[in-house]
Write a structure and sequence with these properties.
The protein is an alpha+beta fold. It is globular and about 30 Å long.
Length: about 80
C-alpha cells in the first residue's frame, strides 16, 4: 500500500458547462492532481487533499514554478481542510 502525498490547491478554473476544474500540487512540485466537479453542487474546495502519488500527473514546464510557489503559499496560509 502506498502512502499519500499532501497536495495544495494551485489553480481553479470554471468552464462554460458549469464545471470547476481544480488542480492540486505538492509543495515539492513533483506532480499535479486534477479533479472536476459541478459548480452547482455548492461543495467548497479544500486548501489541500491527500493524493496517492501514483495518481499524480506531470506538470507542464510552463506551470511548474508557479504551481510549486502557489502550493507553498497555500500551505503557509491555510489549514489543509479549510474551505477556499
Amino acid at each position: 500500500m502506498s502512502d499519500t502525498v499532501q497536495c495544495w490547491l494551485v489553480e481553479r478554473t470554471y468552464d462554460d458547462k458549469g464545471l470547476i476544474r481544480l488542480v492540486y500540487a505538492p509543495t515539492n512540485g513533483s506532480g499535479q492532481f486534477v479533479t472536476e466537479r459541478a459548480a452547482a453542487t455548492g461543495v467548497d474546495a479544500t486548501a489541500a487533499m491527500e493524493v496517492d502519488p501514483e495518481k499524480l500527473d506531470s506538470i507542464a514546464e510552463e506551470n511548474a514554478e508557479r504551481y510549486e510557489g502557489e502550493a507553498e503559499r497555500m500551505a503557509g496560509r491555510h489549514d489543509p481542510d479549510e474551505s477556499v
